[in-house]
Amino acid sequence: MVLCDGTFIHHLLLHRLIPINDALARLLGTRIIPFTTRCIIGELRSLGESHREALEAAQQLMIARCDHEKRINAMDCIESVVGEVNSEHFFVATQDADMRKKFQKIPGVPVMYGLRNSLFIEQPSSMQKQFVKSSEERRLHLPESEDLKVRDLNPRDKISNNPDHGDADETLLRTASDKRNMLGVSRTSQLKRKRAKDWL
C-alpha cells in the first residue's frame, strides 16, 4: 500500500506517469493499491484550478482513514495514519523534502519520490537499518517460555534430561512413535525416501 500526498500525485500527472497504479507497480515489481487521505484531498481542493487534475486523480484513490474532523496539513495527517510503528505497512510517497526527512526517522516506513519521469525509493536511514537489525535479532532468539514449550513437545528431550532413562521414558517414546504411525507420518517419510532413491 502506498500513501500518496498531493505533491506526489501532481508530479505523476505532470510527467504523465499514469495510470498511477501501473507507475507504482513498475517501481515495486508487484501490484499495489495507492491511497490518500481526506485531508490531502481537501488540501488539493484548496489549491484551486492549478491542481484540479491532481484533485480528480486523488479522488479516484483509496482513502486511508484519518479521522480528522477539520483538515490538517498533509505531513501531520500522514504521520497520524502511519503511526509510530506503521502497522499497516504503508509506503509514503511525497515530493516534499521535509516530509521525506521526517519519515526516514520513523522505523519501517519506506519513502518514495519522483525525479522527472522516474520514481525512486529512498535508501533506508541508519536509524531504520538499526531497527531492522534489532527486529531480526529478536525473532532469532526465542523467549525462555517459548523454548520450554518447544521442549515439552519433544519426548526425546525428556529422556535425555532424565538420568534414569527408565521404562516410563521408553513407553513415552513408543507412544509418540505409535501416534506418528497412526497419523501416517512414518509411512509418509519412508515413501519419500523410496521416491528419492528412484531418481538416483
From TrEMBL:
Keywords: Nucleus, Ribosome biogenesis, rRNA processing. One of its GO terms (biological process) is rRNA processing. Transmembrane segments: none annotated. The keyword Nucleotidyltransferase does not apply. InterPro entries: Fcf1/UTP23 (IPR006984), PIN-like_dom_sf (IPR029060). CDD domains: PIN_Fcf1-like (cd08553). The keyword rRNA processing applies. This is PIN domain-like family protein. GO terms for cellular component: small-subunit processome. It holds the Pfam family Fcf1. Coiled coil: none annotated. It is found in: Nucleus, Nucleolus. The lineage of its organism: Eukaryota, Viridiplantae, Streptophyta, Embryophyta, Tracheophyta. Its main location: nucleus.
